[in-house]
Amino acid sequence: MCTDDIIEVQSSSSSSSSSSIRQAAEDTQPEELCSALLRLCLFDEVTYAYQVVQSPGISPVFLFSMSMEDYDYLFKIVLIGNAGVGKTCLVRRFTQGLFPPGQGATIGVDFMIKTVEIKGEKVKLQIWDTAGQERFRSITQSYYRSANALILTYDITCEDSFRCLPEWLREIEQYANNQVVTILVGNKIDLAEKREVLRQRAEDFADAQSMLYLETSAKESDNVEKLFLDLACELIREAKQNKLDNNDTAPMPGEGKTISYLSCCNLN
Ligand SMILES: Nc1nc2c(ncn2[C@@H]2O[C@H](COP(=O)(O)OP(=O)(O)OP(=O)(O)O)[C@@H](O)[C@H]2O)c(=O)[nH]1
Q1: Residue 80: strand pairing partners
Q2: How far apart are CA 144 and CA 130, in angstroms?
Q3: Which residues, other chains included, contact 220 with Cβ-Cβ below 8 Å and sequence gap of 6+?
Q4: Cβ-based neighbours of 185, under 8 Å, separated by 6 or more
Q5: Is the dihedral of CA 177, 207, 85, 74 positive or negative?
Q6: How far is the CA of 105 from the centre of ligand 1 (A)?
Q7: Per-residue model confidence as pLDDT tens digits over 79-120
Q8: Ligand 1 midpoint to CA 141 (Å)
Q9: 21, 87, 89: residue to mutate for ligand 1 pocket, most atoms within 8 A of CB
């Protein structure tokens, strides 16, 4: 695709502040953990965003701020899939270039930002990493609706994580907007000798569901950049197409607006 035209501009994350959330949330019963929210406030044309966990005993924590003027496009990408398939590692690999040792389970949602430049246009990727554990499902479902793209992840060494995909597709059907771009990702290809899901089988499944398909290794960094950058290129293409279709309703480069919904894409 257009990866030659892409340069990284900057990245930031909630991870340092969210470690305090993680710790507090680990001590909190799921029923007490009401929700994790992103709050946006507009002051003098600068948008400040912060994430809080609403729960007794947990103080709201300011996580990051960003200006709406320093990008051409803003896309929200949400990772979903069973616990342990490697969603957090994929996000960390892409945003921080590392494979975190002893990665704990995600509590609720985590949030990172990375800005890339594609053919001279700055693209801010807002990446939401959701918990795969069933007990957080009611929290994570609320993040689907505003997503421009969903990365549905399974573990190629875990048949169970593949078998659960129809269940995840039902979640997407129910909670995501119907114009969302979805890509199926088989992670952990560095563990080839433990593979339980053949590539052809996964490709056929993705084809049948009109999804893109890619295999990755967060550990070895295989296809991780490609995953996010191809997705960004696809979202830009869709946004431009949407602009053509709707004349002036979609944002164009330089307008710096959030693209909330995109027209349906031809995934084949
Ligand atoms: N070999 C290998 N291990 C991986 C890879 N990606 C993740 N892991 C390991 O898989 C385990 C789970 O990774 P996470 O990124 O926490 O998985 P997750 O999907 O975010 O899990 P939840 O937060 O519980 O939903 C960790 O022990 C990682 O080190 C990979 O590409 N290769």
Answers
A1: 152
A2: 10
A3: 189, 190
A4: 81, 90, 151, 152, 153, 154, 213, 214, 215, 216, 227
A5: negative
A6: 9
A7: 999 999 999 999 999 999 999 887 789 988 998 999 999 989
A8: 21
A9: 89
Whether the ipTM is more than 0.90: the answer is yes
Q: Are 220 and 190 in contact (CB under 8 A)?
A: yes
| Nearest-angstrom CA–CA distance, 8 and 232 | 12
**In whole angstroms, what is the distance from residue 203 CA to residue 190 CA?**
18
Q: Could you tell me the two tokens for 105?
A: 């389970």
Assess whether the C-beta atom of 106 lies below 6 angstroms from ligand 1. yes
> Considering only CA atoms, which of 103, 75, 79, 77 is closest in space to residue 89?
103
Amino acid at 64: F
Q: Name the token pair of 116.
A: 């890339």
In this prediction, residue 248 has a pLDDT band, given cuts at 50, 70 and 90, of very low
